[in-house]
Amino acid sequence: MLADPFFFLFCPALSAENDRLKAAANKIADKVNAQGETSEARLDAADGRIDQAVIQGVHLGASLGLAAMTSRTNEDYSFRPVGFAGGRPDEIDDIDERLEAYDDHAAALAESTNPQSVLNKLFEE
Predict the structure, then answer these.
(1) Kind and range of the H or E element at 80?
(2) What is the pTM of this model?
(3) Measured distance CA(87)–CA(11) in Å, rounded
C-alpha cells in the first residue's frame, strides 16, 4: 500500500514543528534544572521543579521580609513564634487584606531580587 502523497508534503513541516517544541521543552527544563533522558521526560520533571521553585521563592521572600524588618527595627524576629497566630494563611478570614497592606513592601523586595538567584538557591539543594 502506498502512502498518501500529501503526507510527504507535510512531513518536513511536522518535523520542524516537533523540533521547535522539543527546543521549547528543553529551554523550560534547562531553566529549572529538570533532569531526564528525553525532552518529554525533562518536561514532565519540570512540573515538579517549578513547584519547588515557587516554594523556594516563598521561602526566600519571607526571609527577605523578616530581614528587612530586622534592619529597620533592630529586633531579631527569629526568636518569635513561627507562622501565623490565626492558623494557616488559608484559614485566616482577613488574610487578603493583611497581605494587601504589605504590597508595597513585597514589591520593593521582589524588585531587588534576581529571579535567577531564587533558582540558584533551589539548585544548591
Answers:
(1) none
(2) 0.67
(3) 57
Please state, in angstroms and rounded to a whole number, the distance separating the CA atoms of residues 34 and 45: 5
In the chain, domain spans: 7-124
Q: Using CA atoms in the order 63, 65, 67, 71, what is the torsion angle rounded to 10 degrees? A: 180
* Type of residue numbered 77: Y
| Residue range 53-77, pLDDT digits in tens | 888 888 888 888 898 889 999 999 9
Give CA–CA dist 3/10, Å, rounded: 12
Give the three cell numbers for residue 16. Answer: 520542524
Query: Which amino acid appears at position 27 of this protein?
Result: K
* Residue 110, C-alpha cell as written in the block: 521582589
